[in-house]
Design goal:
With 184 residues, the chain is of the alpha/beta class. The chain has one domain (25-159). It is 49% helix and 16% strand. Helix 1 (2-17) runs parallel beside helix 2 (40-56), helix 3 packs across helix 5 and helix 4 (81-90) packs across helix 5.
Length: 184
């Protein structure tokens, strides 16, 4: 828990004291908040507490859950989720390719629109596992470049080294690395 508190304190300080300069060195105001996957529930609680602290410092926040977005756009795209499960059993790879583009585009569009409605708010994205492997984090962050100006914090269940993000602390060959975001 101390790890999460330390990261939250660092993020609080960054947003409250250095809001205008979050992305000054990288050109993007993005932060990837890594945490041990087994601490997902605690990480989400910690970030919600952080949101309350930010509100006390006159920084408004938006919390966006990927699992809810994924469900919403999957249902809009495919209809009944039971149909999705049947399709997955028949041909997982084909299904993944078919829905990745449409659902991924819808998720990206939704988040960009939310940021445009409230450009002064800090955006927190969480439940990242819901979009993996349909939408890769590095591709998501690439899509946000030059479109989202407000600080964006992505909760990431995993770790990073200097070369790549490690989703669920596993080496996944196709997992990329978004080098421009600040990694906590």
């Amino acid at each position: 828990m101390q790890l999460l508190e330390r990261k939250s304190d660092e993020l609080l300080k960054l947003i409250v004291e250095d809001y205008e300069n979050i992305g000054i060195h990288s050109g993007v105001p993005f932060v990837i908040y890594t945490y041990p996957p087994e601490l997902e529930t605690e990480a989400i609680k910690e970030v919600k507490r952080l949101g309350k602290k930010l509100e006390k410092n006159n920084k408004k926040t938006i919390l966006i859950r990927f699992d809810e977005l994924f469900r919403k756009f999957t249902e809009e795209s495919i209809g009944d989720l039971e149909e999705l499960y049947k399709l997955e059993e028949e041909n997982r790879d084909s299904l993944k390719r078919a829905i990745a583009k449409e659902i991924g585009d819808n998720i990206i569009k939704y988040i960009i629109e939310e940021s445009e409605k409230s450009p002064d708010k800090v955006i927190f994205l969480y439940r990242t596992g819901a979009i993996h492997p349909v939408l890769k984090v590095h591709l998501l962050m690439d899509a946000f470049e030059n479109k989202i100006k407000a600080p964006l914090v992505l909760l990431y269940p995993g770790s990073s080294d200097k070369k790549k993000l490690r989703f669920l602390n596993k080496d996944i060959p196709e997992e990329g690395y978004y080098y421009r975001a600040r990694i906590l």
